[in-house]
Design goal:
Layout (H helix, E strand, L loop, with lengths): L17 H6 L8 H8 L3 H6 L4 H7 L5 H6 L1 H19 L3 H5 L7 E5 L15 H16 L3 E6 L7 E4 L5 E4 L11 E2 L9 E6 L2 E12 L2 E7 L7 H4 L10 H21 L4 E7 L6 H11 L4 H10 L1 E4 L10 E3 H7 L1 H6 L4 H6 L8 E3 H8 L2 E4 L2 H10 L15 E2 L6 H4 L2 H10 L11 H5 L6 H29 L4 H7 L8 E6 L15 H8 L6 E6 L7 H15 L7 E4 L4 H10 L2 E4 L11 H7 L3 E5 L2 H6 L5 E4 L7 H25 L6 H14 L5 H44 L4 E7 L9 E2 L18 E11 L8 E11 L2 E8 L1 E5 L4 E9 L8 E7 L14 E2 L1
Parallel strand pairs: 1-2, 1-9, 2-8, 9-10, 10-13, 13-14, 15-16, 15-18, 16-17, 18-19, 19-20
Antiparallel strand pairs: 3-4, 5-7, 6-7, 7-8, 11-12, 21-23, 22-23, 23-27, 24-25, 24-28, 26-27, 28-29
Bound molecules: pyridoxal-5'-phosphate.
The site of pyridoxal-5'-phosphate has 13 residues, from helix 8, helix 25 and helix 26.
């Protein structure tokens, strides 16, 4: 169902009236022809509006339309874009082909920020861009996804850099009626307003619809008449306020988001939360179930089954947490209504002995499917949440990973799309996740790829110069220096880009640790290297702003002037120019703080080569031949790591990167071969089509199926599962190991086998291991009222492989029921392992309805 909207009357002639439809669908943001169509209406205004087609249409003098509709060049391009748009809408999609049975249910995707396009600055960095790219690929693939977010009147700030290198946060004040969003209307054609609760009072919310190709994102807005002035400010700014604003935003996003889905009548089966900010969705859904008379434990089980949680934060301090008092206050209407469940609700956000209510804990407790955003981040997250899961081994913690990607049509340069279209198979963009698609890159003549790359580099340099000239003019620099800036940077020099949020862990100033060595690189007359830096620091982040001042100061030192430049106001537009125009994309975060990182993925598909710390996505993307790594001892203290990483950066530049770029003269075929190798190996994997397919296959569809099974027949199965869990939890204390016996400690006749039989865990390959003597182990386990078949009994020991210890899990088989619900189990183990010293016996509850082996964080060890 598509909610009712109505376009404003712009007075376009009939022949070009579909411009409105195109302007109000962010599909334009990933269609080069559509962007060019709007730009061609009025290039100056197009730039002034930050490429906002709605504002452009609204502000263009109506006298301009008739001549345009008679201009054959414009009309030809208009027709082409409309026809392309119609084709897009009518294509059969991947989801339709793959999951025809699941077209009727939707997946709601909650995120505090969305980065679709520079004209809608409701993102701060990677998290938001990822959410935007997720939606765009969902549209391309036909996934029935619905986005839920907030519409911030002041967006995220515009960045100016003053003459002292001080970042100045300039407020945006959006007039929503000039953005590519439309208010959702009710059946009477009036703006739909829903009601959520903050503390003990109702808050009215308007709902704005951003159309993103086939899908929609609904953005909540608290700036509604009738709300108190404090409440009207809740959605004023992304990450703008104090903890009170923050929690109020999160309450609105989570609970208001669910209410919006209901008001819109959208049948939603799965709820995906992008980071913990939206975890309060669970509170609202529990409230719904309780109101319908469903017992608390059943409600919780149902919410868990239908929730997917993606965590993005690799350090404990990065997770949102509030005092319990704040939760009690801001969720007071919920607690008043369900006073008898207040402790259970609060428990959902509290770890053991933890005084704060942690949004990540809430998310983990209410989502059965959880994932990190790269392979390494998956490991880091499992390790971080081990104690949360009763200190099981890291590998057993039920958090997986789905590595981030980027939306190729949005980030790949139009010039490269054209080149690829000439050499890659016909449907290369639709088939971007196939490795074979990219094999044909070999066919592109090196000179052709280099020409396009040089063209993009020149375009980027023009963009950078304009940015600097504006910055310097505003800051009142001498005319001569402003003039000089319009000649800064050279398309012939090896060009390195570094742009992202200036968060301290990203260590933007690492390269400046040895200015003389940097000087020799930058000012080598035959082999010059130049750097472009850009990024915003959060207005409250003083160390981040200090980094900006440092880069600014260095960029003005004579020997670096015009060769190390700092651009202001990093946004998606600038990001596109940079990732498309540089030779090298540099990323040197402190490992493992970069959960994934995506800017390097944008750079890679454009033929820029990554030079990065083996952190986040690059730890799995780098294969030794498709870029360069920055080395260092990952276990050393931060200062040592910094020194080692810096040394690695300089050495690699001096000995590998600069020579490869320059050794063969103006056309380095070796360099171009590496560009191709980078595109070939990385483009098919690190895109959001692959990522969204992974989410669909691994999380959405399994959750959807499980949820539908759970709720069928008046909640029959979910009630059974919830009752079962409750029974297990309250009776688990009866389960214990009574007796363990190593049978064959003094029995020479023990069998000799090459592998460990009956193992449920990762067992070493038979061939890789010499035969070892085995022994039998028996254990007597008491179960009390719990049926032994509702558990598994296993032996856990550790084995060292390649410097690391891995758990080996051996299933024990029940062999005999003794008296009084005591069961005897048996297994075979390598003979040298001794009970308690080397191995333990573990009992854990199981059920076919569990998503993971440690769904109930209960187990007994002995
Ligand atoms: C891609 C992108 C990011 C994310 O960059 P990382 O290097 O992955 O942190 C941040 N901001 C903008 C504007 C981007 O386009």
């Amino acid at each position: 169902m598509n909610p009712k909207v109505s376009y404003p009357n712009i007075g376009l002639p009939h022949k070009i009236e579909r411009l409105v439809e195109l302007a109000y669908n962010l599909w334009f943001s990933w269609n080069d022809d559509a962007l060019e169509l709007f730009a061609s209406i009025d290039r100056q205004r197009w730039e002034q509006t930050l490429h906002n087609p709605v504002q452009l249409l609204l502000e263009t003098d109506s006298a301009a339309w008739n001549p345009l509709s008679k201009d054959p060049v414009f009309m030809e391009s208009y027709e082409r874009v409309c026809s392309h748009w119609d084709t897009y809408l009518n294509e059969t999609t991947w989801f339709q082909n793959t999951y025809p049975a699941h077209l009727q249910q939707s997946i709601a995707y909650f995120s505090a920020e969305f980065g679709f396009h520079e004209s809608l600055q409701i993102y701060s960095g990677g998290l938001g861009i990822l959410a935007g790219d997720h939606c765009k690929s969902a549209s391309d693939l036909g996934i029935p996804l619905i986005g839920i977010g907030l519409l911030y009147k002041r967006g995220y700030f515009l960045q100016k850099i003053n003459q002292d290198g001080q970042q100045q946060a300039e407020q945006i004040i959006y007039d929503f009626t000039k953005l590519p969003v439309l208010p959702v209307l009710n059946a009477d054609g009036e703006e739909l307003v829903i009601q959520a609760s903050i503390a003990d009072r109702p808050v009215q919310l308007k709902i704005w619809q951003a159309r993103v190709g086939r899908m929609s994102v609904f953005l909540l807005d608290a700036d509604v008449e009738g709300n108190s002035s404090w409440d009207r400010e809740i959605t004023a700014q992304l990450y703008g306020g104090n903890q009170d604003i923050r929690i109020a935003q999160e309450v609105l996003l989570g609970t208001g988001g669910v209410k919006a889905l209901r008001a819109l009548g959208l049948p939603t089966a799965v709820y995906h939360i992008n980071e913990g900010h939206a975890a309060f969705q669970a509170f609202e859904r529990i409230n719904e179930q309780l109101s319908a008379g469903v017992p608390f434990h059943v409600a919780l089980e149902m919410i868990r089954a239908s929730s997917v949680f993606t965590t993005h934060t690799p350090v404990p301090a990065g997770h949102d947490a509030f005092t319990v008092g704040m939760i009690e206050y801001y969720c007071s209407s919920l607690f008043e209504k369900w006073n008898n469940h207040k402790q259970e609700l609060l428990q959902l956000g509290q770890g053991h002995g933890n005084q704060l209510f942690n949004m990540t804990h809430l998310a983990l407790n209410t989502a059965a499917m959880r994932n990190g955003v790269s392979k390494l981040h998956g490991e880091v997250s499992r390790d971080m949440f081990r104690s949360f899961h009763g200190n099981i081994h890291e590998q057993e913690v039920p958090i997986n990973h789905i590595t981030n990607g980027v939306h190729m049509p949005s980030w790949l340069a139009p010039e490269l799309k054209e080149l690829f279209s000439r050499f890659l198979p016909g449907h290369w963009l639709t088939d971007q996740t196939s490795g074979t698609t990219w094999k044909s890159l070999e066919l592109i003549p090196p000179q052709s790829l280099w020409d396009v790359h040089t063209q993009l580099k020149e375009k980027m340099i023009q963009f950078a110069r304009a940015n600097l000239v504006e910055q310097y003019s505003r800051n009142g620099l001498p005319t001569a220096q402003i003039k000089e800036a319009s000649g800064y940077l050279s398309a012939k020099a090896l060009t390195i880009g570094f742009a992202r949020r200036f968060a301290t862990y990203k260590r933007a100033n690492l390269i400046f640790n040895d200015l003389d060595r940097l000087d020799r690189l930058v000012n080598n007359p035959e082999r010059p290297v130049q750097f472009l830096f850009a990024g915003k620091a959060h207005p409250a982040d003083q160390p981040g702003q200090e980094m900006i001042r440092e880069i600014h100061r260095i960029s003005l030192i004579d020997r670096f002037r015009g060769k190390i430049v700092l651009l202001e106001n990093y946004d998606m537009n600038m990001a596109r120019h940079l990732v498309q125009g540089v030779d090298i994309w540099l990323n040197n975060p402190r490992r493992p703080y970069e959960a994934s990182g995506t800017s390097g993925q944008k750079a890679a598909m454009n033929g820029a080569i990554n030079f990065s710390i083996l952190d986040g996505w690059w730890e799995e993307g780098y294969d030794g031949s498709n870029g360069w790594s920055i080395e260092g001892n990952n276990d050393a203290d931060p200062h040592t790591q910094e020194l080692e990483n810096t040394e690695s950066i300089y050495t690699t530049l001096e000995q590998k990167i600069v020579p490869l770029y320059y050794n063969q003269g103006p056309l380095s075929t070796d360099w171009i071969a590496r560009m191709k190798r980078s595109i070939q190996t990385l483009a098919p994997v690190y895109n959001t089509d692959r990522m969204v397919m992974d989410y669909t296959n691994k999380a959405y569809v399994p959750s959807l199926k499980r949820t539908l099974l759970f709720v069928a027949n008046q909640l029959d199965l979910v009630t059974k599962v919830a009752d079962y869990k409750r029974f297990i939890i309250s009776n688990w204390h009866h389960v214990h190991v009574l007796h363990v016996k190593d049978e064959s400690s003094d029995n020479d006749a023990s069998p000799v086998l090459a592998t460990v039989p009956g193992s449920a865990g990762s067992v070493p390959e038979a061939s890789s291991k010499p035969a070892q003597p085995l022994k039998g182990v028996t254990a007597q386990i008491a179960f009390g009222p719990i049926w032994y078949k509702d558990t598994v009994v296993e032996i856990v020991y550790y084995e060292q492989r390649e410097q690391e210890w891995f758990p080996v899990v051996v299933m024990m088989e029940p062999v005999q029921e003794l008296l009084d619900r005591v069961v005897q189990y048996h297994a075979t183990l390598p003979a040298h392992l001794e009970h308690l010293a080397h191995y333990k016996i573990r009992i854990r509850p199981v059920s076919a309805s569990f998503v993971s082996s440690f769904e109930l964080p209960l187990f007994t060890m002995s």
